[in-house]
Amino acid sequence: MADFKTSSSILTKECLRTQICGEGEWPKNTVIYQPYETEQILLPDNSKCLSVKTFLKMAGLEFIVEARENAEYMSPHRGKVPFIKAGQFLVADFEPIVSFAQSKGYSLSTSLDETQKWDLRVYMALVNNVLLNAEIYVTWNHELTYKELTKPRYSSVYPFPLNHWATYNKRREMLSHLDVLGWKKKSLDEVFKEVERICESLSNFLGDKKYFFYEKPTELDALVFGHLFSIITTPLLNNRFAATVRAYDNLVQLCVRIETEFYQSRIL
Amino acid sequence: MGNLYAKPYHDFNINQKLSLQDFKLLGNQEARVDQVHMHGYSKTKDFILESSINLMFTSNSLKNIINNAEIVRKNLMSLNCFENISVNIDVSSGSNSTPNGYKVTFNVQELTFASSILHSVARDNEGIVKLGFKLNNITGHANHFKIESSIGNGGTQKYDACISKHIPGTISSCISGHIFKKKSYWNTVHGVFDEWGTLFDLLFLSPYKSHFSQNLQYEGVIRDINMLSKESPFKLREESGFSVKSSIKHITTIDTRDSKVLANEGVFFQMVMEVAGFGGDVKFLRNYFTSQFYSKITKDVVFQGSFGGGVLTDLGTFKKVNMMDRFFLGGPMTLRGFQSRGIGNLNDNVVAGVTSYWVSAVHIYVKPLFGMESNRINEAIRLHLFCNAGNISFFGKDTKSSLERTFKGFRLSTGFGVVARIGNSIRFEFNLCSPLQYSAGDRIVDGFQFGVGANFI
């Protein structure tokens, strides 16, 4: 038995290594786990899920979407959705998934030169820092949105008294996240001003190009599409958030382009 | 034991010491209790004590009086109001006395209002230290309050606030309410379990035969399962997150053992029935039982036979029962020779906790100092030879095939070792185990295994 055990553990390690190093082998039956779209998911999570799905579609990687009400607790990085299960690997969040795909030899940014790669990284960080935080702010810190939309949606999958408990915990966590980044004390106007500013710079960067880096879509396109499309299509209390984004015509056009190219079924 | 004094009846010479025969004669002679005195209490209310003491007036012989006095003493002690109680039995004198009358005096010493808690318990193969404080007998109605925190060597943390009250009567009962927070770990799969909950418990004790008790409990608890490592089995990971259990539990216990840990004779039987689904999101029906039977073969050799089992029926439609509800088998105190929760293949997509199990054990205990009179070593340590068998299975709809599966490929292990008793509830075991029958995927221990706990098979 002992011999069998050691040999089997060596085999498992070997398997792992070939999976890590093996290029060009995107694991079959890759599953992407996310919360329920119609009744549960919130704006920030929806953006991230959409970004990941768009990235995988752009890279031509196959995946199955599975909705779980406890997706954020199942995630290997607690609270971060979506996560993918690729073979034996669990990877959560947009950027780790991108680098995981890269390690398998699937990347959308290989054709870029050094400066473009820097631009890509800078803009991705900007989107994550501003758009994501703005979404979190609106969802969790804006009192009225929290009461009217966030709380009923987030607690919809839980029975009493867990609906209050879980929502309270999640809100506390999100607020402390905003607090650390200095977003909690901002007013709604300030937040929208930030959004406006990033939209403007993204819009300027995009210009008349088809995608941010000319003809081929990159990770940045996937990320921006995920966020902007979610912001535009998610019904909030007033459409100020969506209106801020809609003001930039070329960004909306980018969303439409990606939408028609990769998601035929939906109409913006 | 309290001090028990008996003074002879008028006809006997007072200076003469009572022989055993005299005492027997005296014991069977008709007698009645004229008066019962209680001394030494100030805070406790009278009516709390009355119902316990009433038993004294039903006694009809001296032997009866002595027996009843001991029962009353035990009942009074179970109120948790007194530090110690001594009993004094004397012939009654004075104008109200009858010819066969006796006077019984209980000298009690009340507990101080506040006291600290520091003691150790063992549970689920883990030694736990409890720290805290309690307020005794707050208003004099035998009501208590305590707060304690427990820390175990396996990482378990528990904080518990408890308020309890004794209700005296022909069926003595105790109501208690708990609020607790618990954190425990399952290291093999890197799992953390958090619980926040309340527990209301109604305990019925038959006062004359204290070995029979029943508990009726309500438990409402929020559970959180967190899998820390990416290597945790995905099947278990799927169950992570919050769930609420709201259940009613009924526990029947019969315990005639002479010691809770190293018994010589007696029977122990405990049956737990639990129905969950009064609110909350898990619904199930769970029954499980443990039984132990002890018999003395010779003066130094004790035989123990144990059997236990359980069935869980999932009544839920949307949300399934999770790993905190299902049964796990294996461990140094149950199915020896296997790791804690070590039975069943974790990577298998099916076996992550089971819905039914059975486990059995046969022990032969030998006192280490063979042939010697009972002494401390013989009381605290025993050598034992054991044989364990058990199995896990999923109960299906088809009874016949379920029954077949129940016994197909059962696990068997044997071995010998040392059992030690610490205090009156902690059991240590150090065994050399050899699993004889097991399936692929079981986490076995072929060699020395150390176990500590209060519940064992």
UniProtKB/TrEMBL annotation, chain A:
Cite the InterPro entries for this sequence. Glutathione-S-Trfase_C_sf, Metaxin_GST, Mito_Protein_Transport_Metaxin, Thioredoxin-like_fold
Pfam family membership, one: GST_C_6
Q: Where is the Metaxin glutathione S-transferase domain?
A: 196-258
Report domain Thioredoxin-like fold positions.
48-143
**GO BP terms:** mitochondrion organization
What Gene Ontology cellular-component terms does the record carry?
SAM complex
Database matches in SUPFAM superfamilies: GST C-terminal domain-like
Cited PANTHER family: METAXIN RELATED, METAXIN-2
Q: What is this protein called?
A: Metaxin-2
Query: Lineage, please?
Result: Eukaryota, Metazoa, Ecdysozoa, Arthropoda, Hexapoda
UniProtKB/TrEMBL annotation, chain B:
List the GO terms this entry assigns under cellular component, sorted alphabetically.
Answer: mitochondrial outer membrane
Question: One Pfam family name from the record?
Answer: Omp85
Compartments annotated for it: namely: Mitochondrion outer membrane
The record gives the membrane topology as: Multi-pass membrane protein
Q: Where is the Bacterial surface antigen (D15) domain?
A: 208-456
The record's principal subcellular location, in a coarse class, is mitochondrion
Is Secreted among the key words of this record?
Answer: no
One Gene Ontology BP term is: protein insertion into mitochondrial outer membrane
User: Keywords for this entry?
Assistant: Membrane, Transmembrane, Transmembrane beta strand
Q: Which family does it belong to?
A: Belongs to the SAM50/omp85 family.
What this protein is called in its record is Bacterial surface antigen (D15) domain-containing protein
